[in-house]
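Hey, can you fold this one?
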Amino acid sequence: MTHAVARLARVALIAAAGYAGRPAAAQDVWRTDFSRHIVPLTEIVSGGPAKDGIPAIDRPRFVTVRQAGQWLHQREPVLVVQYGGITRVYPLRILLWHEIVNDRIADLPITLTFCPLCNTAIAFHRQHGGRILDFGTTGRVRHSDLVMYDRQTETWWQQITGEGLVGKFAGDTLRVVPSAMVSWGTVETAYPTAQVLSQETGYDRPYGTTPYAGYDAPGNSPLAAFFRVSRDERLPAMERVVAVKLGTESVAYPFSRLRDARVVNDVLAGRSIVVMWAPGAASAVDARQVSAGRDVGATGVFDRALNGRILTFDPAAPGRFRDRETRSTWDILGRAVAGSLHGQQLTRIAAGDYFWFAWAVFRPETRVRR
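Sure. Predicted structure:
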């Protein structure tokens, strides 16, 4: 069996696990206004599961860091969102099987999304058009990326860009809520009072395993069944990049370069930013056990302006960085952990860790920072 056939077989198993007993996607019933669309409908293809076949989590439950530490491993990747003094943690071992979590942090209604085929973990503000939206999975993908829908208008949305593709809100864009994808070990140490998404979801799934094992192996390409356009050859398809878009400028920072440099000071759209990389976070789509995935590392993107001056960063110890101006030490979460600025926090800039093929097809104007 070729690698391509094997990967397609795995995706078929994923679909079966997600929507056993559901009708085929072509038989789904929709209230969507298909006369309104901003992309050709032929670009949106079935990913296998039916509408809501991969079920979103609508009533998330949370446990303490201590409780979650009984089943989460240090290297497992998690998505972190902070708002109103509350830190919430969403393990990818759960998002792999649900792709969407509809939640509320204090007065902030948010949707956590994850597309395993593109490695895109993004949080969105789900108040839009004067109402609060709840999201589910359509069972479709466009250029391999999750197409989700809101249950109020059944508009179809592109997950990687937050754009409305088809229906009432076609042409609109959801607001991104800054988040960070880091290792559980980082969160466990930094945020001991955080709230962690519980594995008690109401669904029977083998959390901690991934049905996408081997998907991001070096040399692999996106699945031809879901990705039918020309690929940007500037980087390998499955190269992870930190993608940042400010104003009309987009820049991608390859993990392969960041692993060596560890920190990049840059200016984007007139704004001074720093891109940090630290080891210790596993790939969620490498080994069958998520915790056994190879170390791909984690990133953080922040504004370098603090207290009226621009800081310049250099690598220090693994997972630590030092600014030249005050010699304070910082971690991958943008926190000053030692020095005269101890306790200060850099402002996080919305960015994401994506597979290059996925980001490039939606943002072809992107400059690659080499």
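The two ends are 37 Å apart (CA to CA). Let me know if you want another pass with a different chain boundary.
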